[in-house]
Write a structure and sequence with these properties.
Elements (H helix, E strand, L loop, with lengths): L1 H13 L3 E7 L5 H14 L3 E5 L10 H12 L4 H12 L7 E5 L1 H7 L3 H8 L3 E4 L8 H10 L2 E6 L5 H7 L7 E4 L12 H12 L6 E4 L5 H7 L5 E4 L1 H10 L1 H27 L1
Parallel strand pairs: 1-2, 1-8, 2-3, 3-4, 4-5, 5-6, 6-7, 7-8
Helix pairs in contact: 2-4, 2-12, 4-6, 6-7, 10-12, 11-12
Amino acid sequence: MKRLSDSFTRLESEGRSGLACYFTAGDPDFSSCLALLRGLCAAGADLIELGLPFSDPVADGEVIQAAHRRALASGQTVARTLRLVQALRETDATTPVVLMGYLNPVFQYGESFFAEAAAAGADGLILVDLPPEHAEPWSRAADAAGLALIRMSAPTSSDERLMTILPGAKGFLYHVSLNGTTGAASCAPEEVGKALARIRAQSPQPIAVGFGIRSAEQVKALNGVAEIIVVGSHLVAKLAKEGNAAALAEVRLLAAPLRASSRLAKNEGAR
């Protein structure tokens, strides 16, 4: 988890939000995905979200569902995903990697998953379909391994529901910016700001916001609103249509307003 905390400290010192980029592990194959991941930090990604391929990704829209199918067809498994993280760590020791997926593959893998994920170099885990009421044994296993089990909130999360979600949040809170699946619609930054203000009234946890973010303009509008801004379906679609080079170029475009903000903050500090 140290990579996560170090990343948030750095972003705060630079006076900007960070960019998280989601891709599905093994899409379209292991070697291509590894090359993509190795290029992300240089392109401007501050955090990598790596999807665990699964046959029934119910929170995801058509774009990421297709990525899961491609990855599974190429032979990607949970074990191969951990090997992918391990291979990335051979060239990148600092960029946080958060695994994102569903409970079933982790359950099927067994109790050793958390320790093996941490040993491979993962920093956190988001299990989209794990409600906080059933999270305790999984949280204990993650804590023992030094892996942040990250919780999620949504626009429908009432203040009462947040009181259940937030106390067990580790690493950061992932806020889903809209009602619907990934890539289903565009988020409204002003509505996100209101939702995050409610959350911050109850918890000091850093917040990542994702679902429905697909343009540099949205990223710029959310800069400073959330600690981490997550782009997924938009990048996965770019990868599927045009390949690694186009996906990395899109990451550079999305990161540009955040990096400009960082330079401005440094210049102001120098004065």
